[in-house]
Design goal:
- By secondary structure, the chain is of the alpha/beta class.
- The protein has a single domain, classed as NAD(P)-binding Rossmann-like Domain (Rossmann fold, 3-Layer(aba) Sandwich), CATH 3.40.50.720.
- 45% of the residues lie in helices and 16% in strands.
- It has 10 helices and 7 strands.
- It has helices at 13-22, 35-47, 62-75, 94-112, 138-146, 166-190, 206-212, 217-226, 235-245, 264-269; strands at 5-9, 27-32, 51-56, 78-83, 116-125, 194-200, 257-260.
- The chain has a 7-stranded parallel sheet, sandwiched between helices.
- Helix 1 (13-22) links the parallel strand 1 and strand 2.
Protein backbone atom coordinates (compact mmCIF):
# COMPACT_ATOMS: atom_id res chain seq x y z
CA UNK A 1 0.00 0.00 0.00
CA UNK A 2 1.35 3.41 -0.98
CA UNK A 3 1.97 5.66 1.98
CA UNK A 4 1.15 9.35 1.88
CA UNK A 5 4.08 11.69 2.41
CA UNK A 6 4.44 14.38 5.06
CA UNK A 7 7.24 16.94 4.79
CA UNK A 8 8.59 18.88 7.77
CA UNK A 9 11.06 21.65 6.92
CA UNK A 10 13.13 22.57 9.97
CA UNK A 11 13.59 19.92 12.66
CA UNK A 12 14.29 22.04 15.73
CA UNK A 13 12.04 21.89 18.80
CA UNK A 14 8.76 22.60 17.03
CA UNK A 15 9.69 20.67 13.90
CA UNK A 16 10.55 17.50 15.82
CA UNK A 17 7.33 17.68 17.84
CA UNK A 18 5.30 18.17 14.67
CA UNK A 19 7.05 15.29 12.90
CA UNK A 20 6.40 13.01 15.85
CA UNK A 21 2.70 14.03 15.90
CA UNK A 22 2.17 13.59 12.15
CA UNK A 23 4.50 10.66 11.51
CA UNK A 24 2.52 7.50 12.29
CA UNK A 25 1.42 5.76 9.11
CA UNK A 26 3.17 8.27 6.85
CA UNK A 27 6.46 8.48 5.03
CA UNK A 28 8.16 11.43 6.71
CA UNK A 29 10.55 13.67 4.79
CA UNK A 30 12.58 15.74 7.25
CA UNK A 31 14.59 18.71 5.97
CA UNK A 32 17.07 21.00 7.70
CA UNK A 33 20.16 23.07 6.93
CA UNK A 34 22.07 21.48 9.85
CA UNK A 35 23.21 17.95 8.87
CA UNK A 36 24.13 17.00 12.44
CA UNK A 37 20.74 18.04 13.87
CA UNK A 38 18.96 16.36 10.98
CA UNK A 39 20.85 13.12 11.60
CA UNK A 40 20.08 13.19 15.32
CA UNK A 41 16.35 13.76 14.84
CA UNK A 42 16.21 11.19 12.04
CA UNK A 43 17.85 8.55 14.25
CA UNK A 44 15.54 9.38 17.16
CA UNK A 45 12.33 9.16 15.14
CA UNK A 46 13.49 6.11 13.20
CA UNK A 47 14.22 4.42 16.52
CA UNK A 48 10.65 5.19 17.57
CA UNK A 49 9.32 3.37 14.50
CA UNK A 50 8.79 6.24 12.07
CA UNK A 51 9.68 5.93 8.40
CA UNK A 52 12.02 8.88 7.74
CA UNK A 53 13.84 10.26 4.72
CA UNK A 54 16.28 13.07 5.65
CA UNK A 55 17.21 15.84 3.19
CA UNK A 56 19.68 18.65 3.81
CA UNK A 57 18.08 21.89 2.58
CA UNK A 58 18.90 25.59 2.74
CA UNK A 59 15.48 27.23 2.41
CA UNK A 60 17.05 30.49 1.22
CA UNK A 61 18.25 28.62 -1.90
CA UNK A 62 15.29 27.97 -4.19
CA UNK A 63 17.11 25.22 -6.09
CA UNK A 64 17.56 23.10 -2.96
CA UNK A 65 13.91 23.67 -2.05
CA UNK A 66 12.91 22.52 -5.54
CA UNK A 67 15.03 19.42 -5.00
CA UNK A 68 13.24 18.74 -1.72
CA UNK A 69 9.85 18.97 -3.43
CA UNK A 70 11.04 16.57 -6.13
CA UNK A 71 12.37 14.08 -3.57
CA UNK A 72 9.13 14.16 -1.59
CA UNK A 73 6.86 13.72 -4.62
CA UNK A 74 8.91 10.74 -5.81
CA UNK A 75 8.08 8.91 -2.56
CA UNK A 76 4.29 9.14 -2.91
CA UNK A 77 1.40 11.58 -2.72
CA UNK A 78 2.50 14.66 -0.75
CA UNK A 79 -0.40 15.31 1.58
CA UNK A 80 1.23 17.41 4.32
CA UNK A 81 3.88 20.14 4.19
CA UNK A 82 4.91 22.01 7.34
CA UNK A 83 7.50 24.77 7.13
CA UNK A 84 9.08 25.57 10.51
CA UNK A 85 12.54 26.70 9.40
CA UNK A 86 13.61 30.14 10.56
CA UNK A 87 16.07 32.25 12.51
CA UNK A 88 15.39 34.77 15.26
CA UNK A 89 16.76 38.25 16.08
CA UNK A 90 19.29 36.93 18.60
CA UNK A 91 20.55 34.34 16.12
CA UNK A 92 20.98 36.28 12.91
CA UNK A 93 21.36 39.61 11.18
CA UNK A 94 18.45 41.41 9.58
CA UNK A 95 19.74 40.37 6.15
CA UNK A 96 19.82 36.69 7.12
CA UNK A 97 16.34 36.91 8.66
CA UNK A 98 14.90 38.27 5.43
CA UNK A 99 16.60 35.53 3.40
CA UNK A 100 15.59 32.62 5.64
CA UNK A 101 12.32 33.69 7.22
CA UNK A 102 10.83 35.60 4.28
CA UNK A 103 12.35 34.25 1.07
CA UNK A 104 12.57 30.71 2.47
CA UNK A 105 8.83 30.58 3.05
CA UNK A 106 8.10 32.07 -0.39
CA UNK A 107 10.31 29.46 -2.08
CA UNK A 108 8.65 26.61 -0.18
CA UNK A 109 5.13 27.77 -1.02
CA UNK A 110 5.97 28.08 -4.71
CA UNK A 111 7.94 24.85 -5.09
CA UNK A 112 5.38 22.69 -3.29
CA UNK A 113 2.31 24.21 -4.97
CA UNK A 114 2.73 21.99 -8.08
CA UNK A 115 3.37 18.78 -6.11
CA UNK A 116 0.93 18.88 -3.18
CA UNK A 117 -1.66 16.14 -3.68
CA UNK A 118 -5.39 16.78 -3.85
CA UNK A 119 -6.74 16.82 -0.32
CA UNK A 120 -3.36 17.93 0.96
CA UNK A 121 -2.63 20.74 3.38
CA UNK A 122 0.31 22.92 4.32
CA UNK A 123 1.19 25.01 7.35
CA UNK A 124 3.80 27.76 7.63
CA UNK A 125 5.08 28.55 11.11
CA UNK A 126 5.13 32.35 11.24
CA UNK A 127 5.08 34.32 14.51
CA UNK A 128 2.90 36.57 16.62
CA UNK A 129 5.50 39.23 15.74
CA UNK A 130 3.84 39.42 12.34
CA UNK A 131 0.79 40.91 14.07
CA UNK A 132 2.83 43.56 15.85
CA UNK A 133 5.34 44.94 13.35
CA UNK A 134 5.41 48.26 11.52
CA UNK A 135 2.60 48.83 9.05
CA UNK A 136 3.17 48.46 5.32
CA UNK A 137 1.18 50.19 2.60
CA UNK A 138 -1.51 48.35 0.59
CA UNK A 139 0.79 48.52 -2.45
CA UNK A 140 3.63 46.95 -0.49
CA UNK A 141 1.29 44.28 0.87
CA UNK A 142 0.33 43.38 -2.69
CA UNK A 143 3.98 43.20 -3.74
CA UNK A 144 4.88 40.98 -0.80
CA UNK A 145 1.91 38.70 -1.45
CA UNK A 146 2.07 38.30 -5.23
CA UNK A 147 5.60 38.94 -6.52
CA UNK A 148 7.15 35.68 -7.83
CA UNK A 149 9.46 34.29 -5.17
CA UNK A 150 12.62 34.55 -7.28
CA UNK A 151 11.93 38.28 -7.80
CA UNK A 152 11.11 39.18 -4.20
CA UNK A 153 14.65 40.06 -3.17
CA UNK A 154 14.75 42.82 -5.80
CA UNK A 155 11.80 44.71 -4.30
CA UNK A 156 12.73 48.12 -2.85
CA UNK A 157 10.88 47.21 0.35
CA UNK A 158 13.42 44.42 0.94
CA UNK A 159 16.48 46.67 0.67
CA UNK A 160 18.78 46.12 3.64
CA UNK A 161 18.82 49.84 4.46
CA UNK A 162 15.11 49.67 5.27
CA UNK A 163 15.64 46.91 7.85
CA UNK A 164 18.63 47.81 10.03
CA UNK A 165 17.15 46.21 13.17
CA UNK A 166 16.89 42.39 13.35
CA UNK A 167 13.79 42.54 15.55
CA UNK A 168 11.90 44.74 13.12
CA UNK A 169 13.15 42.67 10.19
CA UNK A 170 11.78 39.57 11.91
CA UNK A 171 8.34 41.15 12.43
CA UNK A 172 8.33 42.30 8.79
CA UNK A 173 9.29 38.84 7.52
CA UNK A 174 6.54 37.18 9.54
CA UNK A 175 3.97 39.69 8.28
CA UNK A 176 5.12 38.79 4.77
CA UNK A 177 4.55 35.11 5.64
CA UNK A 178 0.91 35.86 6.43
CA UNK A 179 0.51 37.66 3.11
CA UNK A 180 2.23 34.93 1.06
CA UNK A 181 0.04 32.24 2.64
CA UNK A 182 -3.10 34.26 1.97
CA UNK A 183 -2.21 34.63 -1.70
CA UNK A 184 -0.94 31.05 -2.12
CA UNK A 185 -4.25 29.61 -0.91
CA UNK A 186 -5.78 30.32 -4.33
CA UNK A 187 -3.15 28.39 -6.30
CA UNK A 188 -3.11 25.57 -3.76
CA UNK A 189 -6.90 25.49 -3.89
CA UNK A 190 -6.79 24.80 -7.63
CA UNK A 191 -5.08 21.52 -6.73
CA UNK A 192 -7.68 20.76 -4.09
CA UNK A 193 -5.22 21.60 -1.31
CA UNK A 194 -5.15 24.08 1.57
CA UNK A 195 -2.46 26.29 3.07
CA UNK A 196 -2.50 28.22 6.36
CA UNK A 197 -0.04 29.72 8.81
CA UNK A 198 0.33 29.51 12.57
CA UNK A 199 1.71 32.42 14.58
CA UNK A 200 3.22 31.01 17.77
CA UNK A 201 3.81 33.15 20.81
CA UNK A 202 6.80 32.58 23.05
CA UNK A 203 7.52 28.86 22.84
CA UNK A 204 9.92 27.00 25.11
CA UNK A 205 12.36 25.86 22.43
CA UNK A 206 16.08 26.59 22.27
CA UNK A 207 15.27 29.57 20.06
CA UNK A 208 12.62 30.84 22.44
CA UNK A 209 14.88 30.48 25.45
CA UNK A 210 17.63 32.35 23.63
CA UNK A 211 15.24 35.22 22.95
CA UNK A 212 14.24 35.30 26.62
CA UNK A 213 17.89 35.81 27.49
CA UNK A 214 18.34 38.47 24.80
CA UNK A 215 17.88 42.25 24.76
CA UNK A 216 14.07 42.05 24.69
CA UNK A 217 13.83 39.22 27.21
CA UNK A 218 12.39 41.38 29.99
CA UNK A 219 9.53 42.56 27.76
CA UNK A 220 8.90 39.01 26.58
CA UNK A 221 8.61 37.78 30.15
CA UNK A 222 6.17 40.62 30.86
CA UNK A 223 4.12 39.51 27.86
CA UNK A 224 3.98 35.95 29.14
CA UNK A 225 2.97 37.04 32.64
CA UNK A 226 0.30 39.42 31.33
CA UNK A 227 -1.24 37.01 28.83
CA UNK A 228 -4.43 35.05 29.30
CA UNK A 229 -2.60 31.74 29.49
CA UNK A 230 0.16 33.11 31.73
CA UNK A 231 2.73 30.59 30.59
CA UNK A 232 5.23 29.77 27.88
CA UNK A 233 3.98 27.69 25.01
CA UNK A 234 5.36 24.23 24.31
CA UNK A 235 6.30 22.58 21.02
CA UNK A 236 3.39 20.22 21.59
CA UNK A 237 0.99 23.20 21.69
CA UNK A 238 2.08 24.07 18.17
CA UNK A 239 2.08 20.45 16.99
CA UNK A 240 -1.54 20.09 18.14
CA UNK A 241 -2.55 23.20 16.18
CA UNK A 242 -0.75 21.90 13.09
CA UNK A 243 -2.48 18.55 13.44
CA UNK A 244 -5.86 20.32 13.41
CA UNK A 245 -5.06 22.49 10.39
CA UNK A 246 -3.90 19.57 8.23
CA UNK A 247 -6.85 17.36 9.27
CA UNK A 248 -10.28 17.00 7.62
CA UNK A 249 -11.72 18.92 10.58
CA UNK A 250 -10.19 22.06 9.04
CA UNK A 251 -11.36 21.38 5.48
CA UNK A 252 -12.93 24.87 5.19
CA UNK A 253 -9.92 26.68 6.65
CA UNK A 254 -7.40 28.04 4.16
CA UNK A 255 -5.46 31.23 3.50
CA UNK A 256 -5.54 32.39 7.10
CA UNK A 257 -3.34 32.68 10.17
CA UNK A 258 -3.99 31.00 13.51
CA UNK A 259 -2.56 32.78 16.54
CA UNK A 260 -1.29 30.26 19.08
CA UNK A 261 0.20 32.74 21.51
CA UNK A 262 -1.53 32.19 24.84
CA UNK A 263 -3.40 35.46 24.38
CA UNK A 264 -0.37 37.77 24.20
CA UNK A 265 -1.52 39.70 21.13
CA UNK A 266 -5.01 40.09 22.53
CA UNK A 267 -3.65 41.56 25.76
CA UNK A 268 -1.27 43.85 23.89
CA UNK A 269 -3.87 45.14 21.46
CA UNK A 270 -6.31 45.94 24.26
CA UNK A 271 -3.70 47.78 26.28
CA UNK A 272 -3.56 45.26 29.10
CA UNK A 273 0.14 44.71 28.48
CA UNK A 274 2.05 47.99 27.96
CA UNK A 275 3.83 47.91 24.61
CA UNK A 276 7.49 48.95 24.81
Amino acid sequence: MEREVAVVVGVGGMGEAIARRLGPGRCMVLADVDPALLDTVTQTLTGEGHLVTPVVVDVSDTDTVAGLASTASALGPVRVIVHTAGVSPVQASAEAILKVDLLGVAFTLEEFAPVVAPGGAGVVIASMAGHMGPAVTPEEESQLALTPARELAALPILEASRHPDPGLAYAFAKRANHLRVRAASVEWGRRGARINSISPGIISTSMGQAELQGPTGSFMRDMVEGSGAGRLGTPDDIAAAVEFLVSPAASFVTGTDLLVDGGVVGALMTGQIPFR
